[in-house]
Specification:
The protein has 203 residues and is mainly β. It has one helix at residues 157-161, and strands spanning 2-3, 10-18, 26-28, 33-37, 42-51, 59-63, 67-71, 76-82, 88-92, 98-101, 112-115, 119-121, 125-128, 132-136, 144-146, 153-155, 169-173, 180-182, 192-195, 200-202. The strands form 4 sheets. It has a 7-stranded parallel β-sheet with strand order 2-5-8-11-14-17-19, with no helix packed on it. The chain has a 5-stranded parallel β-sheet with strand order 1-4-7-10-13, with no helix packed on it. Strands 3-6-9-12 form a 4-stranded parallel β-sheet, with no helix packed on it. The longest helix is centred in the C-terminal third of the chain and has 5 residues, at 157-161. It is globular, with a radius of gyration of 16 Å. The termini are far apart.
Length: 203
């Protein structure tokens, strides 16, 4: 449990060498985890730099317990990456929930930025806030697939369904991303921007 008052910020950075099991450079996997600030930013980064075996199950950020990451007015940034294409930037699993942003009933103003090339969501998550919510790949040229479309970076309609209403905007992609494809109906509670450095296809 990490709590700060006022403008105190929280930085959690980790890198790791893994052997192909269910591990992460930053892992929250036993007791429930809470990281909370008032106006300070929260920056969580994980990087897997090598692996003994093919790291199919690894997440640079690996959450297998209940995780609450919240700030009233600070920005929240999660970044997961590594030097293997099979690594998940963010992997969540188990009978738990992952909650990112302000707590229910709070009027938070900070931005939330999620940086990863691959996502594995095996449990419910909640994204709540009043600032800008950004999903973006880390590696230039990474293809994006939304609502069932193919791509390295994928977000399903179910993934996006956990985004709570109230953000000033939702941004998916960035100017260095590869092609972006929308495979079907896509519903967002707030203003949605799709950004790609390549082609944009809506099916």
């Amino acid at each position: 449990r990490l709590l700060t008052n006022g403008a105190g910020r929280v930085d959690v950075w980790g890198d790791g060498y893994v052997d192909g099991g269910n591990y992460g450079a930053v892992s929250f996997s036993s007791a429930a985890c809470e990281i909370t600030t008032e106006s300070g930013d929260i920056d969580i980064r994980g990087y897997i730099w090598n692996a003994l075996n093919a790291p199919v199950n690894n997440g640079a950020l690996y959450f297998s317990t209940t995780v609450n990451i919240s700030s009233v007015s600070g920005d929240i940034s999660l970044t997961g990456t590594g030097n293997y294409a099979t690594i998940y930037g963010l992997r969540m699993e188990g009978a738990n929930s992952v909650n990112i942003g302000v707590q229910s009933g709070q009027a938070g103003t900070g931005d939330i930025t999620l940086n990863f090339d691959r996502l594995s969501r095996g449990c419910p998550w909640s994204l709540r806030g009043a600032g800008l919510l950004t999903f973006q790949p880390v590696t230039a040229g990474t293809t994006l697939g939304l609502a069932g479309a193919a791509g390295t970076f994928r977000l399903s309609t179910t993934d996006l369904g956990f985004v709570q209403n109230g953000f000033s905007g939702i941004r998916i992609g960035n100017s260095t991303a590869g092609s972006l494809t929308v495979g079907g109906a896509l519903t967002a509670n707030d203003s949605l921007s799709l950004i790609s450095g390549g082609t944009l296809t809506v099916n």
